[in-house]
UniProtKB/TrEMBL annotation:
A Pfam family per the record: bMERB_dom
Name of the molecule in the record: MICLK protein
Domain BMERB: from-to ranges: 45-149
Comp. bias (Polar residues): 1-11
Species for this entry: Centropus unirufus
Compositional bias ranges of the Basic residues kind: 22-31
Length: 149
């Protein structure tokens, strides 16, 4: 009877010792998982900040473009008046005025193309942000335990 009790005690001790190692492994994997999640969140936050800075820079450039376009528009109106002879400045000949007007049109077209490029980049940033949010939602859904799913 003593031997049976010792045997059962030793076997229960072995089971008890193996359980903590399992919980230790589970704790370790849980820690790794949390650390990985934390690192992933940090990377996501950094990417969001980069996109935000890019978007702000694009917004500033768009505002500057708008100001330059307005200035060109005002100058263009003056040139057209001079070409029509409505202005009193008779110092410039018509060829020179036409040359300035064509340069003005070229500059305006260049600004409009650049504005279009900036708007496309801004839209691309919005799409990247949307994709990032969708990926985050997917990660959250995938992290839910199988029982809860």
């Amino acid at each position: 009877r003593k031997q049976a009790t010792e045997y059962s005690t030793s076997s229960s001790d072995e089971e008890f010792e193996s359980k903590p190692s399992l919980t230790h492994k589970a704790k370790r994997t849980l820690r790794r998982r949390r650390k990985l999640e934390k690192e992933t969140k940090q990377l996501i936050k950094q990417e969001e900040l980069k996109r935000l800075h890019k978007a702000q820079a694009i917004q500033r450039e768009l505002e500057e473009l708008e100001e330059r376009q307005k200035a060109l528009e005002i100058f263009g109106v003056q040139l057209e008046r001079e070409l029509r002879g409505e202005s009193d400045s008779g110092t410039k000949d018509e060829t020179q005025l036409l040359h300035e007007w064509f340069e003005l049109v070229l500059e305006k077209n260049k600004l409009m193309r650049y504005e279009s490029e900036l708007l496309i980049i801004a839209q691309e940033l919005e799409l990247e942000d949307h994709q990032s949010r969708l990926e985050q939602k997917l990660r959250e859904k995938m992290a839910i335990d199988g029982k809860s799913k």
